[in-house]
Write a structure and sequence with these properties.
With 428 residues, this protein is of the alpha+beta class. It is built from 10 helices and 16 strands. A hairpin with a 5-residue loop joins strand 5 and strand 6 (87-92).
Length: 428
Amino acid sequence: MVSASAPLLGGRYRVEGLLAEGGMSHVLAVVHAFSRRPIALKVPLPGTPPGGEIAARLLREARALEVARHPGVVELLDAGYLEDGLPYLALERLEGATVDACLQQRGVFSVAEATRLAIELCEALGPAHAGGLVHRDVKPSNVFVVRTRANDERVKLIDFGIAALPDAQGPAAPAGRKLTQEGTFLGTPSYMAPEQLSLRKPTDRRADVYAIGATLFELLAGRPPYPGTYADILVAQMTKPVPDVREHRADVPAALVAMLACALAREPEDRPTDVSLLRNALLDAVPAALARPLSLLGRARRIEEEEAAEPAPILLLSERRRHRRAPFSVRGWLTSTREGRQIEVAIEDVSEGGVAVHAPEPVPGAPLALVFVAPGASAATIVGTETQWVRPDAARGGSLVGLRFLDPLPEDARAAVRALVALRGQDR
């Protein structure tokens, strides 16, 4: 524990330790002396000249984060100067792990997980691109997976240190140049678009589209599309076709392979022009991508807890309620596959035609998919539904919602529903 008498940075931040260190800056774990809020403080490395390029870049990052403000982007809380004249950024302190760390720990992602993560990246970059900003360094180590207060997981895009800000006329500033001191290209070669890597064209938001595609490729294949040195990658980009991810795994649907080839196209004119177009194309290629929440943090511990838990009893839904409400419920997730919004629900009644759920939040818009795991099942079931009725739940808040299954149900989904009905039937 840090002593209350320890000196404060900027007159308000008490240092707890070091979170991360890079080539130009490091990130300190600090606590706001008055609110006691945990914060990540990004500051230049000691010895950095106050008026140099590195200090100026940190202040540009503050402006970039304001332009890019979105729940899927790390939040800027404050910016200013320290006692030594160097600037700082006060950022929300993220608890979780980078996607790069998740890859190293658990290996490749499922098709649905990888696609969902790419979709969330598209959504996070939307306001930035609308404001004329290009991130230029989207990669697994700059994507953080965090657990929200609702106990679900989402991505947070971090490190806007080399983002291209719009100029006075509005479009993003040209990005094809080297750093003035380090002599290295802006970005990480494995995720850089050909025009960004070769400096042959100005870089715009389609470079971020490429980087999302390269990140998605790695989540599926366990390696970036073009591994190797800067020279290896540049030669491969200019002379070879886009690699087929199915060379590394066979379960990637053809529509997603085609979408990856489009996102990783050599010429920016051949890629989606906007992250919203890429998002919709990804969802069309993998419709189940938003049907289940991300589950990347502490997975092994949660699986052990779920296996140790006893199956929850289900109340049979007949034409009208004839039985008392079950004291337990089955956990589920209700997703709008078009809006990309998802809420957790409690399935409390079930029949072969539909379910009644308790929803603590407003129900998303159609089309809807319900995801649940039947007791004893080894995998989740995804069922298309439509809302039949909504009633306020005065006792618990939120609402009770009647959902009708859309016909025809696939046989595996029908079997899972019948298992729930049969389970409750044993207790009648």
